[in-house]
Amino acid sequence: MVSPDPRMPHGYSLPLSPHGTASLVPAPPWHYVGDFLVIEYWADPDAVAAVLPEGLEPFGEDPGRAAALFVDWQSCSEGGGELADPVRSQYREFFIVVNAMLDGELVTSCPYIWVDQPFALMRGWIQGFPKKLGSVWLTRTFGLECRADPGLAPGATFAGTLAAGDRRLAQGSVTLEQLSERGPTHNDPRLVNVRHFPRLAAGHHGSPAVHELVGGVSRDRAISAIWEGSATLELFDAPNEEHAALAPVRVGRGFRFSFAYTVDDLETLRDLV
Amino acid sequence: MVSPDPRMPHGYSLPLSPHGTASLVPAPPWHYVGDFLVIEYWADPDAVAAVLPEGLEPFGEDPGRAAALFVDWQSCSEGGGELADPVRSQYREFFIVVNAMLDGELVTSCPYIWVDQPFALMRGWIQGFPKKLGSVWLTRTFGLECRADPGLAPGATFAGTLAAGDRRLAQGSVTLEQLSERGPTHNDPRLVNVRHFPRLAAGHHGSPAVHELVGGVSRDRAISAIWEGSATLELFDAPNEEHAALAPVRVGRGFRFSFAYTVDDLETLRDLV
Amino acid sequence: MVSPDPRMPHGYSLPLSPHGTASLVPAPPWHYVGDFLVIEYWADPDAVAAVLPEGLEPFGEDPGRAAALFVDWQSCSEGGGELADPVRSQYREFFIVVNAMLDGELVTSCPYIWVDQPFALMRGWIQGFPKKLGSVWLTRTFGLECRADPGLAPGATFAGTLAAGDRRLAQGSVTLEQLSERGPTHNDPRLVNVRHFPRLAAGHHGSPAVHELVGGVSRDRAISAIWEGSATLELFDAPNEEHAALAPVRVGRGFRFSFAYTVDDLETLRDLV
Amino acid sequence: MVSPDPRMPHGYSLPLSPHGTASLVPAPPWHYVGDFLVIEYWADPDAVAAVLPEGLEPFGEDPGRAAALFVDWQSCSEGGGELADPVRSQYREFFIVVNAMLDGELVTSCPYIWVDQPFALMRGWIQGFPKKLGSVWLTRTFGLECRADPGLAPGATFAGTLAAGDRRLAQGSVTLEQLSERGPTHNDPRLVNVRHFPRLAAGHHGSPAVHELVGGVSRDRAISAIWEGSATLELFDAPNEEHAALAPVRVGRGFRFSFAYTVDDLETLRDLV
Fold it and tell me: What does the pLDDT average to over A152-181?
């Protein structure tokens, strides 16, 4: 235990400081709520297999199964202080998950993810989400019947877009048809990712300090009614990116809903070092 | 009439182009929907008088009456295409209005306003809003009962913040108490602003090409239920800014609601050149 | 003359204010210095003709002649105060110019231009530059021989990129070969643009308040040594943009140099309303 | 060694990918060149002692000695590809260093640092720099005698500013007097920082996965002539920040120069877990 020593700079994450209040990522729990666009799709099975970390096997029954998610988030730590200074609370996110098997259990894994705020970037690395910074936008609804609001009704279209490095990397949409009975399934299994932190010492660049298979843990989940409809999805190639190898060969259903949960735990499944 | 000549570059605003589709601001109508935080307050009456344009007189009955508004907007032009590419549709805004008299009619006037998107900046200048670019954030609600969502209920606090030029310029909050019967009044009278476009020819820098008193016109207005409660407001001084002269001497009630309207008209009240 | 009345809100541009210091664009003169990448090229002659404003004729002798410019600017108004708060002083810019004839004189005209700061956006509209906001980046040199600096020497490559609306819109490069004797010529003739400010009154959307052919005026020009070499240029299509119609059919020479000037005048050549 | 297995997603940092080209931070070496403003100053000695990590002792001889640095960087990895896409190459940085003793050796340590690009943020964490994202600006010189360029000459003023979380956090300036014989000394000793990566498993939030005292290693250093002069420095308090406790009690000399180096090593001095 390092941080509790009040005579030393402390805090959950860098920067450590005398009062422990300067951390880029404050201590858990982290409370989240957000609006989701989920697009179920299938990528090339070989491309899916190529992004699976050590320890995961392809999902033989349906090996290209994937989903793309655009999320409009608001989050805070225990005190809730970020809600009163929302520049430290809100962010938007795009990510891809693929299905895989871990010791006979169906799981999802996230090979690529972008957010538009630095606290979310670093919070992701701590959880094993391989986050980069990008620009993400989602169509919103405000609950008024008017021309600028698609509304939550059959025929309404909600779009999501992602750019990073000054290039458009992804765009998708969901056109609502009806309330959904089942909700999305491609992104439903437990998330299993790689937590990874590199080493810089000469001769050890290939030996990360942290490299482990981790399983997501959450609690206090809440969800709204789920709308379902047809969907589109495009992934665009770019330098310094490989997500376009996971471009859809077939697009399935799309979903829109709101979801909340709390995170203050993570399970290490396997040390990969 | 200039733009209709299809052989010439055309469009509603610059850049004019062969197909007329490159304009920073597309042609009206402009449809809007947004979430509002309205904070009624009183500034120093002399400071209010000092920002009134030619043609407006102080509101003698209550000469310091003002309001501060944070708004989270989504907007589109007639085709609605911006909703499918929301980086061109959404923006956030902070502005101050003061009350004044125009020929015996109670009106409001907007001396200072900031938005976070360039299309909204220029659309504002076309309407007589003196927009600058800034960074505006508002607490949001997502309709789920959870720790990251203040909810629409007594005790919930919604905050707004403004920065520009890398400085915090304003922050305020509204803590909900109850549904409001009257709604806000300080910002209710018709908006009367100055439309202004400078001249650069040597010797004519003080003779703007456009300088006129204009009255806002809108249609197809819709509004949600209005929540009301206590409020806070701070305005901070900064180089290249004068809004802090309108800092509150007394803060009144705060309001939160959603509002939609359409704009495709403007009334010129008086040419000030 | 409007602004000198010290009892009224005044200033060169919106927002007008009691002390006249809040204007988004301060009063001229505007002093500029910047690093330039100029790429001479030829576009499809029909595409060039299609972007010429009323009053300009194609340059018959070489009708597709154009240039693309990436510029890394620092600017200030008379007091120079922006240099001490450089967030209000620096910006980057990409623009295209095409050659044309005006009453027998060879001129250039700028159909499309992007900058990354709002004061530069609005300053452009006042001058007749049809500016939009974008993200522009240019390779820099720092004068040290090292791996992170291309240096000013044969073989060094300087790149420029433009994005707007979360899409890459242009990229180009110049690989230095030698000091240039002639310097660039495609962008050399006087700039003739359209100053344009729309009207919002119903029934008058096609009748801009300002619509005039203007000729650029500058003074106190200074220039560094000019490097010259081979060049590349790509323009990418995007929604809400038409610049890609001016994509190169042939790319010529590229140039890199520093340039300074002062602007406080503009010549109206013809009223187009 | 994990990454070399070509059948697994690999790369130096997250995201790991089939071809190893998607990493937010590419593999070392990292080559840097930048323009520096260094402001030597003295903070309250107790405040300096309070930010020293375990293992460092106050510098008894001059216990408040510190420096503030604004840097305008360009960097690339071995291939140099970032120079051709400069959005991935350039960033600006502000940081504070304080002097301290490590086993009898005079060192510097960096308690607080901000950069404006995500690759630099994460590259910092890998090196033990406690980086947050901010907005940093520095006055530039372009080598032309003109009104928009302070020039490198006696009397020229160069400013630096920092904002984060939509608040101004620091500003400083250096007014050149003469070429410097000694150069800055407060920031000269070797950098000793804390490399730190948290744990999220419940019950272990106070037990970071990585927590070690590290010493910076660099090579291939190059430096320009150094200008020296008078200086100013202000640090501003803000929520979620503690740097203002290190505000100057006395400001010393300021320096401006360009500097380049390469980093591909780091020395672990002590494991602090």
Answer: 98
